Amino acid sequence: MRLIRNRSPEQILEHIREAPVTLWAWDPGEGRTPAPMSHREFVRHMAEWVEKGADCHIAPFVGSEGGKYFPMDQPNKYSLYRYSKAHGLLACQTCHQSMHGLYPVRYDGPKTTVDETTHRQALQFSPGGKYTGPITCGACHTVNRKGVPTQLQGTAYYNDYRASVVLIHFMRAGDRKRPVPELIKKYPYAKAQEIVLKGWE
Predict the structure, then answer these.
(1) How does 84-105 read in b/e, with b if 16+ C-beta sit within 10 Å?
(2) Is the pTM of this model over 0.85?
(3) How far apart are the first and last CA of the chain?
(4) Any idea where the domains of the chain sit in the sequence?
(5) How far is CA 182 from CA 46, 132, 176, 179, 187, in A?
(6) Given 48, 51, 72, 99, which residue has the most CB atoms within 10 angstroms?
(7) DSSP secondary structure, 165-197, as one string
(8) What's the rounded Cα separation, in Å, for the pair 168 and 184?
(9) What is the pLDDT of residues 78-113, one digit of tens each?
(10) Percentage of the chain surpassing pLDDT 90?
């Protein structure tokens, strides 16, 4: 089985149980809607998934149009990763690469096996041609020296790249059309900063 960020299914389950960045979904702050099922219920479903072999291609994770098994299929999102979207209408794998990519694209030194052709292709989408991994904001936006989109100038996000990444993961359908002041009011910097401080890995 492919590890997810070097975690086994059991470690993923532990992450879901305890990680602050995950628990935020059940306590997102005033004016925001928490996850559609209780944390306890979700952990129970996740444990069942792990017990059955952690296969993403068995029911109920296939064939659903969303809203039944958070966070695999959030409301109005398809259940499989390849169909999921965020930050406007971008597919998650637009930035995070294909779940079933045949080769790693991040070069971590001479001891790490990487397909050089795929690595060079990935660099085409990297501002400066040096970074491969999740596609950065600079692939589509004009960014400041810290890599934050210039649209966020005048906000606390403007000097905090990691918090700005949290912001784009907050965004849901319709948010991309909101004026920046309205977007920042909906997703305050303090909450994004808290997630970075407690849960960034």
Answers:
(1) bbbbeebebbbbebeeeeeebb
(2) no
(3) 22
(4) 1-83
(5) 35, 32, 11, 5, 9
(6) 72
(7) HHHHHH--TTGGGS-HHHHHHHS-HHHHHHHHH
(8) 11
(9) 456 666 666 766 777 777 766 655 445 555 566 555
(10) 19
Say if residues 66 and 73 touch (Cβ distance below 8 Å): yes
Residue carrying the six token digits 């966020």 = 152
Burial of 163 (0-12, 13-18, 19+ CB in 10 A): buried
Which region holds residue 138: left if phi is over 0, alpha if psi is between -120 and 50, else beta? alpha
Place of tokens 């389950």: 13
Confidence of residue 69 (pLDDT cuts 50, 70, 90): low
DSSP 8-state symbol, 149: B
Alpha helix ranges (H) inside 19-137:
20-23, 39-51, 92-96, 116-123
- β-strand pairing of 85-86 with 90-91: antiparallel
